[in-house]
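Name: Cysteine-rich CWC family protein
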Amino acid sequence: MTTDKTNAQREDAEDMPYDRADRNRCPLCGGPNGCAIEAGKPAESCWCMRATIEKNVLASVPLPLQGRACICPACAAGGK
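Structure predicted for Cysteine-rich CWC family protein:
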């Protein structure tokens, strides 16, 4: 269930600048995320398209970056 506070935070996040340099970094560990889209490659070539990422890992991404920032393969696997 989503609260009003969470909805407001998500709306605020949509207005936050998200620097292009940040888009190449994992929001959890700060390492390179290996995003194919940011590298100018087709989305279907990205490692994440073949990975299973647990909901709890995605939920650990800071709220303002959820749905906006790509995590790295190690964090996606729960390794960091």
